[in-house]
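Form 12-C: Joint structure prediction
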Amino acid sequence: MYDKTVRRRRAVLGLLVASSLILLTVYFGESAGGGLHSVQRGVLDVVSPVQEGASRALKPVRDLFGWAGDTLDAKGQLKSVRKERDALRTELVDTQAKLRDASQLKSQELLNGEAGLNDNAPVRARVIAKDPNLWFDQVTIDKGTGSGVQRNQAVINGQGLVGRVTEVTGSTAIVTLITNHTTQIGGKVSDSGVQGLVGVEAGHPTELVLDDLSSKDVVTRGQIVVTAGTTSKVDRFPSPYPRNIPVGRVTSVDDPGTDDQRAHVAPFADLRRLDLVEVLTKRDSAAK
Amino acid sequence: MRVAVPQLVLRLTIIGVLVVLLQVSAITQIELFGTNADLVPLVIASVGLLAGSVPGACFGFFVGLFLDLALVQTVGLSSLVYVGIGYGAGRLREMRDPQGALVPLAVGAAATALATIGYSLMQFLLGVDAPVSFLLARDLLATILLNAIIATPVYAAVRRILLPALPEDPRRRRRRAYTTGGLSPLSRA
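Section 2 - Result
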C-alpha cells in the first residue's frame, strides 16, 4: 500500500515535470502561429475582460496601498529634500551677501573716484561688532595696524563719511562714528562753500548740526554738506578728514540770517547698517 | 478517512483563478518597500502544506500554466517552478508535519525564494540577457521579506477555504474530541 502511494506520488511528480518541460520545448519550438501560442491568445481574450473588471474593482485597494506607499516614499524623500533646501538656502544667503558686498564696493569705488580718495590709500574693512546702545556711536572693524590703520584716520563707506579711528590694535580698530557727541567735523556746503562745524545735536543721536555760521552765510534746505578738509591752521592739529567727502543733506535751518543760525543735517551714511567701510590711511596733503 | 476530491478540486480551482487574477490585476500594481508581493508561491506552498504533495504539485502546475497563459509568457516555465514548490511543501507536511505558528512564515519565505531564484535561473538558462546586479539581489530579498510578512495571513485564508474539503486529520479529530468531552483517554479510564 505504502509503495503504491509512493510510486503514485512520484509518477504524478514526474508527469507534471515532464509536462512542463514538454510545454517549454513545444512553446520554444513552434512559430508565433503555433498551437500553444493560439491557446495563449485565446486565454488572453477570455481573461482580459475579467482582468479589466478585477482591475477596476480593486482600484480603490490599489489606490489605498499606493497612497500608503507614496506617503512612506514621501517621508523618505523629505529628509533629502530638506537637506537640499538647507544647502540652497545657504547658497542663497551667500549669494545675497556677495551681491550686497558688490553693491557696496561699487558705490565705494564710485565715491573714491568722484571725491578723489584713491590717493588716500583706502583700506577696505568689514564691521565685525557694533555698539548696541541707543546712542550707537562706535563700531569695530576687522583691520588694524597690520593693515596700516592708525588712530584719527577717516572712515567712509559708499554713502559718505562714517567716522574716524579712535582705538587700534594689530588686527582690529574702533571707529567712533560722526554721531558721537565728541566728534566735530570741519564741514562746508558743497555748492556755496559756506563753512562751519558739523557735530551731533544734543538729544538726537542720529542727526547732525552745521553750526558756527555767520549771519551772512546762506544755507537752505536740500544743500549737501561735505568735509572741508581742515578745521585748524595749526600743523599740530591736522584734520583727519580729507576734503569733499559727503557728510549729509541739510533738512532744515533754525534762525536763518542770524549769527545763531544752525542747519540740521541728515547723514548720508546709514550708520545703523554699516557693513563694508574704508579707512583712509593716508592724509590729504592739502588738508592740514 | 473521507476524501471529498471533487469539492477539493473545485475549491483549488477557485483559489487558483482568484489568486492569479488578484496577482495580475492588483498586487503587481501595489508597491511596498520598493517591491511587489507575490501571492502565487505563498498560496501554492499553503496548499501543499494543507493538502499534501500531490495536490500541491498539481495545483502548482496548473496555477503556473494559467499564469503563463494569462501573462503571455513562456508556457511551462512557471509550471515547472511551482510544481517543485507545491511538491516540496506537501512533502514537508507528510514527512515532518510541522505545527508551529511560524511554519507558514518560514515555508512562505522559502517558497518565495525558490520561486524568484528558480524563475530567474530558468530565465538565464533560456537566454534572457539580464545582468545579475546588486539591484536584482536587493529586489529579490525585499520580495522574500515582504512575502514572509504576509505568509501567515495568506496561509490562514487558504486554510479557511480548503478546510471543509480536506481529508479528516487524525490529530484535529483528536483535539475536537477532547474539547467536546468524548474519546478522551482520561474519560475512558
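Section 3 - Comments
The CA atoms of residues 188 and 195 of chain A lie 4 Å apart. The longest helix of chain A spans residues 59-115.
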